[in-house]
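Hi L.,

You mentioned the student needs an example of a multi-chain input paired with its predicted structure. This one should do, with 1392 residues in total across all chains.
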Amino acid sequence: MRMIKFETDYQEGASPEILARLASTNLEQTSGYGNDPHCSRAKDLIRREIGRPDAAIYFMAGGTQTNTTVIKHLLTPCEGVIAVSTGHINVHESGAIESTGHKVLTLPSHDGLLCAEELRSYMEAFNADPTNEHMVQPGMVYVSYSSEYGTVYTKSHLAEIKRACEDYGLKLFVDGARLGAGLVSSGADMAMNDIAGLCDVFYIGGTKNGALLGEAVVFPNPESVNLKQFTTIIKQQGGLLAKGRLLGIQFEVLFEDGLFYRNAEHANIQAMKIKRAFIERNIPFLIDSPTNQQFPILTRQQHETLSEKFSYETWQPLDDGRLAVRFCTSWATTDDNINELIQEIQQL
Amino acid sequence: MRMIKFETDYQEGASPEILARLASTNLEQTSGYGNDPHCSRAKDLIRREIGRPDAAIYFMAGGTQTNTTVIKHLLTPCEGVIAVSTGHINVHESGAIESTGHKVLTLPSHDGLLCAEELRSYMEAFNADPTNEHMVQPGMVYVSYSSEYGTVYTKSHLAEIKRACEDYGLKLFVDGARLGAGLVSSGADMAMNDIAGLCDVFYIGGTKNGALLGEAVVFPNPESVNLKQFTTIIKQQGGLLAKGRLLGIQFEVLFEDGLFYRNAEHANIQAMKIKRAFIERNIPFLIDSPTNQQFPILTRQQHETLSEKFSYETWQPLDDGRLAVRFCTSWATTDDNINELIQEIQQL
Amino acid sequence: MRMIKFETDYQEGASPEILARLASTNLEQTSGYGNDPHCSRAKDLIRREIGRPDAAIYFMAGGTQTNTTVIKHLLTPCEGVIAVSTGHINVHESGAIESTGHKVLTLPSHDGLLCAEELRSYMEAFNADPTNEHMVQPGMVYVSYSSEYGTVYTKSHLAEIKRACEDYGLKLFVDGARLGAGLVSSGADMAMNDIAGLCDVFYIGGTKNGALLGEAVVFPNPESVNLKQFTTIIKQQGGLLAKGRLLGIQFEVLFEDGLFYRNAEHANIQAMKIKRAFIERNIPFLIDSPTNQQFPILTRQQHETLSEKFSYETWQPLDDGRLAVRFCTSWATTDDNINELIQEIQQL
Amino acid sequence: MRMIKFETDYQEGASPEILARLASTNLEQTSGYGNDPHCSRAKDLIRREIGRPDAAIYFMAGGTQTNTTVIKHLLTPCEGVIAVSTGHINVHESGAIESTGHKVLTLPSHDGLLCAEELRSYMEAFNADPTNEHMVQPGMVYVSYSSEYGTVYTKSHLAEIKRACEDYGLKLFVDGARLGAGLVSSGADMAMNDIAGLCDVFYIGGTKNGALLGEAVVFPNPESVNLKQFTTIIKQQGGLLAKGRLLGIQFEVLFEDGLFYRNAEHANIQAMKIKRAFIERNIPFLIDSPTNQQFPILTRQQHETLSEKFSYETWQPLDDGRLAVRFCTSWATTDDNINELIQEIQQL
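Structure written out for the whole complex:
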């Protein structure tokens, strides 16, 4: 029997507009490694989007690679990166950050978010510690927007973190693997240019928002960071695609006329339908997420029933035997699949 | 004015059959990270191709990543990899191998190829050196097929290298970024299953032979290598594509009915036309290459004339002022472009 | 005014017996890098001490170097090392472990000790996690004896940890920077040969127990670990002393006739005097330590008074304004200094 | 039968003056990690020696550690260090440099020395290479004084190299493991302050010149290098001795009244006696070295005779069957041993 998959947001191919453009440009001859007109135009479209004509932009193939490369480039060898304990770099990247020599320094996760006050306390304690010359030097803060728990920072929350970073000499990096879903969510009070204004570097996730693959790293103020060797570091980390146009073409299509936002909106709308269905059935949530990841808490019985027909991620077993799970929607989630799921939820 | 590009073999998109398949499978739901039916089928097709039903196969996004991941996985922290000085890992990967802690130990390049006798002498000298506990331990030999200079190993040459590797406890890794061009060339007396039989690991290059991106790493005898953590290492190196099917689908198309070989043959045929044109014009070559990379030696005058209309790579300035350059063809090189080039060569 | 120092156990030189032996052997000619008769004899003495004639033993210059080298050698590139959050490798080694690519995976610290049950739960959760291929693979457990809080494992506690390690395929590494102080403490129910029987590797700290510098790494069952390249790794990590005899001579002296234990006993006896003085003055402790590190909790007033004449480490500010501090004694702590301190404590 | 050892310059203990000082200061209480009065005074003595009151100075335990730490600190992750192929970092450090992620880029060795013109040509070729963004970026030049072949740079030679470094944006690092032997040799036309004026960083070797262990890293112009985190990096690399005074005390003694130079002079004088004996016997040399390493070329017969009573290093087998060997003297080489050797040479 066919399983309907809600495991994640990368289980289909790419937006048809992207495939069409790949086909129509297929025989153009271009230089490799991102030195092509499509990458140039895609960068211009993103610069326009964030209102920063001087932003430096680089395309990379995937999120782990992007996180690793950016962190490796911006830290000195004895600096570490601060993240919440649930941060992707701390949990699900197989030690990629450590493989480049950098420790991930963890703070508590509040539904996936970092608390600016806790960051300040951490830095105060570090600076007051007489043995801190023997410790990893905090050099950067990493946050995710939207977070690994589907939550989003408000503008004032991110601004508070940014101020703390400035006060303690830390760079701020926003992982935007699911930036689209965050920005178009009901929880968002920011646009992409606000993000750009509140960090040293962020990336725009393509893979989880309708591209075949690809993330766009954005340095909004390139003069404040030494980027002379950034392309060489991308190459060293294995992230410089020979046919770099593959990334440029996709971001061109995503940012020409708002496809990036339409894809994210579709995913969120479908997620909200699921959310409502669980709420109406009085099934609680681990977290109140406004984005395309939803975390209902199922009894074992409910889980057994649902998992006959639907696949989704087991997130976290609770002490009382229940199971927090994750349903994830995407730009491609169909109404049919949503309706089948809702019907099943109603009968739980 | 339009420049006709012969710089490299990754300046167009992908074989139309690949784009078509991406479109026809686009809305299928599959699990991520290569756990999908397309990757499974592609692996089976490759296993059939090399006659090794037990081979372990992994897909990765690009060549540098593949080289780095394989080498990092197979060496201990104090082992190095032996390569000819012109080897890709020694020259053009921005220190990716060293970034994982491993030294590249170089031997002389003979038109891009490694000499088995020199390998033996090197190992004899190393083993005889009373201070070798203070030296990088040779753990692996890296060769390219076809090489960075377009040349190919004969079967007996590769077998000699393999025997030396066995005699000295070295693993043998064949970089097949341009495996297709090598195997279908007039210089080849091997098929892919011969390569598989003569090394511990090799990879089949997709990027330079008609795929959008992608390389297939093949361990012909997986029981002889500990692969339990290989997927985790791929993830750590940033090479585990979320939409792994993108790689599986492409290798399915390449190996279903021989497209992999047809693409390579087309590239070689177009290269031979260029080669003949230069020969007829009495223009000498740096190297006698039977594959899709050709290295004529141009006078400055000839170079100025040709480079008005055609772009190609400057390879190496010679002491007498002339310039060795590289013309590279691909699965997509058109007859029109070849004919324009030939005409121009004839008039040099 | 002269400050009396109780900051740590490495603020004096070396046991006079060691200096005397360095002088009497000074003009002997020996080979470098530990290939000398003194290192050989020192190894034999340690093998005798632990009753394991086949143990493999290596001398290194310091603790951080030893931890890093052992961990780097025994883990694969995607494995991490489990330690309590207060473990030295997690806090005070400037990211040395991460600098070799390995993540430190933390469990709660119970007065510096690791709980075997929590280790089991951690491994159960890891093994049950369907995404664990994307996570750092636990490969080793690191514990300190005595711990960074002066506490010691009982034999049954360490045996429990060892059983858990065996059940989950983890190596067990005992950091013995302060092994002597632990073994001769009132909290100990083990001898060094018990430690040897309950781990895969441990080291015997010389620096903090009367040597100028030096730690002895012991692999009790060398056949179970590949040590062929261990000397090369020591060299790579910068830990192979040219005049390796400097380490061998010191461990000879320490293990010829029990100086190692006498030094530690002296330190503990002096520490107990301090402990009693604080107890009699009704000053509480952060932790009940039976070894040469004592952690009284001082009011700000008490701290101001004591710190006029004595230096010691500020350990941890408490929420109520008080300060946990550390007094540390050594093989060289004099009765005079102890008496001056006790007098001052009595008048607090 | 007793073998007389001429293998290397670290086969005895330390200058008696050093041992005496260790004894007389043994019970002083000092802070750890180099924060003690002896390290301070030793730094002042070195600053006076080179006439640079602002120089930043750090003590480390050994040469490989020093090389690795300095190079790691001064290079960005995609930069490499240029050295001659015979350079210690390229051959005899077990890949320590690569273990921190940096490639050693090699130029030809001219009796152990680097040619400034070849350095310029290398950099010109690098800068002209259109693909250099995919290559390791040269960031530093490493030279040894005296070299691994006993030779020394003249002042004008080193100045030429320094100018090339400045012209191409490279830092210059002088490995002074055998600095003393170089400076007091007949080949030297420089003093230590000249070295300080011609490089960005150098180190003064103690281990091979009469110390038990220890090297002093000197940054003559500390304002030109970011040293804020240098102590943390030393700790991360495992090079921060707990009893740092052990290094400070030794350098105090070496630089108080010229012992550093007297030790080196003694070694050179003894080496010259050996050299003369071989010359008088008409035995040729691989290299004309003015320092404490001498490289005569022996027939197999001569080698068999000499090696019955003397041990020395086999350096390099020649194609004609003869053997280049190394005789090395030290601060401790006795007249008796020299005379026995000379007698034997005369009878070859």
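You could point out the following to them. Chain D has a mean pLDDT of 97. The longest helix of chain D spans residues 259-280.

Best wishes,
N.
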